[in-house]
Each structure stands twice: as structure tokens, then as C-alpha cells.
Amino acid sequence: MVVEYTLETSFELAQYTGRTHFSGDVMGESGMKTASDVNVIGKPLGNLGNLEVEFDWPWEVANGKWLLYLMEIQTKGTSDSHCVPPGDIVNPLNLTLPESKARRRRRREEGSTEEGAPKTTQASLNLKGTRKKFFNLDCVTGTAHCVKFICPLHNMNNTATIIVRARVWNSTMLEDYREAWRVTVNGKATLKLVTDKPTIRMNTKSTEFTLDIDPELGEEAPYQVPLWIIIVSAVAGVLLLAFIILLMWKCGFFKRASTREMYEAKAQKAEMKTQPSEVERLTEE
């Protein structure tokens, strides 16, 4: 007699839809210093076999630029404190992790106490009125490139938590999505059972997560004209000026009367003055 066991698990995200902003200047890869958090929580029931979470992570846009740059993957409730997938996909540029929220809050409070009077800020223009485009980035449609990685939940009890910290790549937003009023990024996490016992089963569970990226209100990055536009404009201006000069030359604008022609005109005028009139000629006759 063979008895089959089916694990009943609960798998959910701490926050299905997150929101962040982009603003400022375009920076190189070495200029990215902070990260934002995306939390994934799983609550498996029972400890038969091992559970693992497979991520479809949107880390690049279609042209290969960074999108959600993985900074760190922490695990709680398991024997491993961090998940380090193969392939050097977690923080390959060795960027600095952000300070904790409590520390940032404490620094803001200390700064406001030292300054005393509140700062007066200038009124800013709501940029959403001038931004008309909405972008949806996901790996199904090919608008984003996803990387697959697995985080095993070794020796977990009843509850395990996976915290994925990622950096929204600000330069990509400014360069490729300057006209966007919102960029939505979609990814997926799947809970799976790994066991060598054929009598233990579990239904695979998947959940999707969404990150809404909005432009920072009241702040517009300065637009830099590409160099090729400047060169083409300069060449076009020179050609237009040359065409105008050639047209004026064809119309005789730059022609001058020669000295000989001027002399002949003066001599003819002098001869006309010395000729006798008709009255004098009749009187003499």
C-alpha cells in the first residue's frame, strides 16, 4: 500500500505592488550607491523535503541596460543567511548597500533639529502633465530581460522569508524613459518542492510582483543635445549660407561697373553739354 502526502503551503508577497521614483542626472555605473527593497515571503507547512523559490527577475531592459540591479538576497528562517545564486548576478559591480531606514530617519531628525527653522522650497511644476507615455516592462513581451535564479530554503521550520534588495537603475530611466509618466516593471516568483520521495507532492505556486516607477515631481533632468545634431545643424547652416551667396551672385548682386564704362559715360555726358541748341543753330543761319 502506497500512501501519498501532499504538502499544503502558503506563498505570498509582503507587497505585491511597490513604488519608487527616478530623477536627477544620468550617472555611470560607479555612481549608483543606494538600493531599494523588494520583499518576498513564503510560509510553507511541514518540513518534508526542501522548498525553493525560483525568481524570474527583470534585471535589464530590452537594449541591455540595467533595470532592477540585484544588490543582496537575504533569507530568514533557514540555515542560510544569504542566497548567492551562481553566475555572479548579485551585485557584480560591488556597489555600496544603503544604510538602514532607522539610521536614515535618525539622521534626518538630527538634521532638522540642528537647522531649527524649516526650509522654504520653491514651487515645482508637476511633470506628469507633460509626460504622456506609459511603459510596461516584463519578460513575456520581451520589453525586459529576466534572469532566473533559485534560492533554496534549507532546514526551514514553518516560516521562511526571502528579502531581495535591488536598485532601480536611475540612468536607464532618464535615458530611455524620459517622457514616461510611469514605468511598470513585472516579475515572478515560484515556490517549488525538491524531494527524492515520489510519495510527497506539492502543487507549484507562482505569484507576480509589480514595481511602479514614477518621475520625481518638480525635477526634470537637463536635456543634452546629441553631438551629431549639433554637427548636422552647423553643416546645414554653412550650406544654406553658401546657397544664398551663390544665388545673389547669379543675380548680379556682387557685380561692379568697370572704370572704362564709367569714363565713357562721363565723356558722353560732357559732349551732350557742349552741343548747341536748336534755337542757336537757327539764329546763326
UniProtKB/TrEMBL annotation:
One of its GO terms (cellular component) is integrin complex. This is Integrin alpha third immunoglobulin-like domain-containing protein. Keywords: Cell adhesion, Disulfide bond, Glycoprotein, Integrin, Membrane, Receptor, Transmembrane, Transmembrane helix. GO terms for biological process: cell adhesion mediated by integrin; cell-cell adhesion; cell-matrix adhesion; integrin-mediated signaling pathway; leukocyte migration. It is found in: Membrane. The keyword Disulfide bond applies. It comes from Coregonus suidteri. The chain crosses the membrane at residues 227-249. Residues 97-123 are annotated as: Disordered. GO terms for molecular function: integrin binding. Residues 22-215 form the Integrin alpha third immunoglobulin-like domain. Belongs to the integrin alpha chain family. It is a single-pass type I membrane protein. InterPro entries: Integrin_alpha_C_CS, Integrin_alpha_Ig-like_3, Integrin_dom_sf.
